[in-house]
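Look over this today:
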Amino acid sequence: MSNIIRLNETAPRSEWIVMSNQGTDSFLDLLITAADTFEKTEHQEELLSFLRDQKEINDIAPGTAGFDLKEMPWRVGTLADDADFLLRVTAEAQNESVLTKLPYDADRDIVIPRIRQFARLVEYMKDGAKAFRGDENEYSGSAGEKQCTFQNTTKK
């Protein structure tokens, strides 16, 4: 069974990241390992916790670890900074130094293009952050050329 990562439910199939269970493990391991090299805000830790949860889900119930980026715990007030953080993580995840930290040989020909594709989806989220104004609780509109909707999860 495959895992699918996409921007949201309206994303065209051509933009879906589709991976095997093993590919998903490698993808998530690389992102999580790369993130360890950076200082993180409390909220960035929550985003990483979401990715760790997906890894655990894939271990327990293979083929069910797919998600939409809009499901991640984004916050309106920090979305642009958090997207920048994840973009730094995706760049770091492609480095040989991160690949060699894994306890197995990840197939870079499979996983690195998926990480780059994930970075493009994060860019769409970042572009969408520019559309937030004031105290709006939800943004629904285009993020770059993409349609996305996500909730303000800022704790009050």
